[in-house]
Amino acid sequence: MSNKKESLLLVAEKLFYQYGFHSIGLKRIINESNIAIMTLYNHFNSKDDLIVEVLKRREQLYIGHLKHYLVNDRSSTFLKLAEGHADWLVKNERRGCMFLRAKEEFGGDPVHPIVELVNNHKEAMIDFILKIDAAITREKAMQLMLLLEGATALAETEDPNIVGIQLVDMTNRLFHLS
After folding, report:
1. CA-CA distances (angstroms) from residue 161 to 2, 25, 130, 156, 165?
2. How confident is the model at residue 136 (pLDDT cuts 50, 70, 90)?
């Protein structure tokens, strides 16, 4: 990926996450990433295309972050995922799930590409959990997702460190890992 495209994606992600998708215009993204408008349009046909790329990139970063926690010890998959998610909450700003924020802004149109991407992301997260271990049921994967999503929401108003500790504790209790 070119340095200019990378800069554009980083600036766009930061601004979208901080201020929302509709309130940030392309002009601000261009100015803050210090690129020409033609550079933007060489990489993206529209603002929606840029948003889709930002969300896809964020998904890759998040899944990569979780995989890092699974590398050495798969004996307690759910605990490792909860620990990884707790760490993600501490390292990232406290603005909730970027995907759900996007769905809130574009949710009036259920077939909008961004809404479809968000729905697919949530389903992909359940599939990600299921693929880690064949013994994991869909019901258990959904239960873990409820814990992760709830922790993300609560970290908007509570200390993410404390939320993470509680997430790991609840994961241990719910899935009888200790």
Report:
1. 35, 33, 27, 12, 6
2. very high
pLDDT in tens, 61-74: 999 999 999 986 65
Length of the chain: 178
DSSP states of the chain? --HHHHHHHHHHHHHHHHH-SSS--HHHHHHHHT--HHHHHHH-SSHHHHHHHHHHHHHHHHHHHHHHHHSS--TTHHHHHHHHHHHHHHHS-SS--HHHHHHHHHTTSTT-HHHHHHHHHHHHHHHHHHHH-TT--HHHHHHHHHHHHHHHHHTTTS-HHHHHHHHHHHHHHHTT--
